[in-house]
Task: inverse folding
């Protein structure tokens, strides 16, 4: 499937809220293949069992990233989209769904929910989605590339417990959009697994340190 050059963003503004720029549908005449990756993460036995609750904030992203279009970067200075192909959801919605489900399926946490539910949480997880694209990076085959910066916040005082940037790149088996979509599914699965494990370990270390008895001051003779 050939990519098509990204058209000027301001020409798409009125359509972004519906289903992305019409470039994906090739003017609405050609059929559009919609891809919906299924993300299932197996829990790691080494992850700690925690008794605190977590709220997941909807990820933030730039307008060109957060859309149903499947972006492709043929060269470092170009960003295009695949013609006749689309995601079932914008990238941030897919990421939020996969992360929440990853925590729920882990069985390692007392409670997790989207921040919009109003859950009383001990920690909050924020995510900035920086890249969600098929990137050739000078290679004959593209790689599904996802980059996010995650921050774990203590809910009471909004203290930043930790911050970490995750970058996953999974090569596609060929240049077709089906192979690219499959590579994205693999990349999202690995990213979700890494993010869930990091959050559980980091949050538990902070919770233990907060509950530890104070160390008495040293005395000198």
Result:
């Amino acid at each position: 499937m050939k990519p098509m050059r990204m058209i000027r963003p301001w020409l798409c503004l009125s359509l972004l809220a519906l289903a992305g720029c019409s470039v994906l549908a090739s003017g609405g005449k050609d059929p559009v293949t919609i891809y919906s990756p299924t993300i299932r993460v197996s829990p790691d036995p080494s992850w700690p069992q925690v008794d605190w609750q977590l709220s997941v904030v909807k990820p933030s992203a730039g307008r060109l990233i957060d859309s149903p279009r499947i972006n492709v970067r043929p060269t470092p200075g170009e960003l295009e989209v695949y013609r006749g192909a689309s995601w079932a959801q914008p990238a941030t919605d897919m990421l939020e769904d996969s992360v929440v489900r990853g925590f729920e399926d882990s069985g390692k946490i007392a409670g997790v929910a989207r921040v919009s539910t109003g859950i009383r949480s001990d920690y909050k997880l924020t995510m900035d989605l920086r890249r969600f694209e098929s990137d050739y990076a000078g290679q004959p085959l593209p790689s599904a590339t996802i980059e996010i910066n995650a921050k774990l916040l203590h809910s009471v005082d909004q203290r930043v417990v930790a911050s970490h940037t995750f970058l996953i790149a999974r090569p596609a088996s060929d240049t077709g959009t089906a192979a690219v979509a499959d590579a994205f599914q693999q990349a999202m699965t690995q990213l979700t697994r890494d993010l869930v494990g990091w959050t559980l370990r980091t949050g538990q270390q902070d919770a233990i340190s907060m509950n530890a008895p104070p160390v008495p001051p040293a005395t000198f003779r």
